[in-house]
Give the backbone structure.
Amino acid sequence: MDAKIIAHSRIPTLPLSYWNLRHKPKQPCVVGVLTRPADGIAGGETAKTNVYKDSWFDHLAINHLSKSVQAASGLSNSKSGYESLVEAATVASKKFSPIEIQQVVIQALEIAFPRPILLLIRTLLPPSKFAREYFAVFTTLFFAWLVGPSEVRESEINGRKENNVVHIKKCRFLEETNCVGLCINLCKMPSQSFVKDSLGMPLNMVPNFDDMSCEMIFGQEPPASTDDPALKQPCYKLCKKFMQDKEKPCSKLPQLMQRIGLGMASSVSLISHAIYQMALIV
């Protein structure tokens, strides 16, 4: 696909029951595709090469997000700048399960963006070619501090070409953390849910864990959790979370879902056995 460059680019801890009521899991159906399989990624090493010169706005946004994550996790750190954000994310991922940390991020986003503003945006920009292209350009202009330089690219939707894809050249967050689990649970999954639920715009984020690039495809539904290639990736050898706590390796959603599935299977087995015993007695 030819690419056409358009642009360069104290939250309180709420009970889990509150999140479960407001954010029910969804099962989308469109599958995102990675550029290469997972083989070799777990043993590969990544080297940080980019040097960022953050502006006053960048520092303001970074510090605000870092403080929000620290407030949500209940654990603070004394670091500053992007390093503080990475530390806050790593600590939060150790305290919460994958599902819980996704909900913490969603709640932080809902507090950061007042509901009346989100409702206004959703009303003025219903799903359309213009809305998809607007969100793409907006992302490249105002979120470089979080993900690094990006550009708008062209894709095809229903036989029509649109500039609705944000190509992140090398994700700053993934580069700094070297952690697939943090990418999935603190960025990809909560961002997809928040944009869809708050703005009414489907979003599929397709990270490439080989070169650390990523594509944000506005207007495309993400795949179901069980079918998403990104959730089947092993983590990097230099994963900061794993290096700090080797007793608790990096965890992602499929592993959690597998445990839930085993638990349900065990429960069904016990119930079936009980019914069988009752039938024998009768």
User: Anything to note?
Assistant: The chain has one domain: 16-251.
